[in-house]
Amino acid sequence: MTFQRARTEEQREVRRRAILETTSAMLDEMSVAEVTLNELSRRVGLAKTAVLRYFESREAVLLDLMDDRTATWLAELEQELARAVDRGRPVGERAEQTAEVLSRSLAAQPTLCDLYGAQGGVLEHNVSVEVVRRHKQASLRNLAVMAGLVRGYLPEVGDHAEQFCLTVLLIAGALSAYTPPPPSLLAVYESEPALAVHRIDLRSALRLAIITTLVGVLPRS
C-alpha cells in the first residue's frame, strides 16, 4: 500500500484485503483465540483506529476471513471429489469415498476448522446486525455450494444435504479444539501412554463422524 489514506473505493478495498491477508498470515502462526487487534494493526502497519474503519471488530475480520477461506476450500474440494469419488460405484462405496475425501480435505484445513469452532460462541458476538447478516448470507451460499457437491456424488442424501454439510462443519470445528494437543498434554501422553487411549486424530475422527452421519441420512436399502 503506497497511499497514506484510502480515498477511493478501490483503495479502501486494497486496504481491506491487506487486513484480511495479514490476519490469514497470523492464523498460520497462532490460534483464532490468540489473534488481537493490537497485533493485527501492528503487522498491517495501521493504527488500531484505522483498522476499525474497515472492520468494526476483531470478530468481524475473522468472520469475513472464514467466509473467504470457506469459498477457497470448496473450490479445492470440488477437484478432490472429482478425482476420488466414482459415481458408478454402489451407494455404500460412494459414501465411504466421500467421507474419506471430506475428512482428508478438512483435516488439511486446521485454521478453517478453528474458525468453525469459534463461530457460534465467539465470532458471532461483538458484531452488528449488518455484519451478522452479511456473514450468514455468505455462509448460506457456501453451504449451498457444498451441498451441491455432495449431492453430485451422493444424490441419495436428497433434501438432507444442507443439514449433513452443516453437521460436518460443526463437527470439524468441535474436534479441532482437541488437535493438536498442548505441550503439557503431550508430555502426559509420553510419560503415561495409557492415558493417550482417546487422543484424537482429526482426520480419523472426522471420517468416523462423517460416515456415522451419512448412515443417518442415506435411505435404507
TrEMBL record:
Keyword line: DNA-binding
Keyword DNA-binding on entry: yes
Domain HTH tetR-type: 13-73
GO MF assignments: DNA-binding transcription factor activity; transcription cis-regulatory region binding
UniProt DNA-binding region: 36-55
One Pfam family hit: TetR_C_34
InterPro entries in UniProt: Homeodomain-like_sf, HTH-type_TetR-like_transc_reg, HTH_TetR, TetR_C_34
TM regions (residue ranges): none
PANTHER family: HTH-TYPE TRANSCRIPTIONAL REGULATOR PKSA, HTH-TYPE TRANSCRIPTIONAL REGULATOR RUTR
Protein's UniProt name: TetR family transcriptional regulator
Record organism: Actinophytocola xanthii
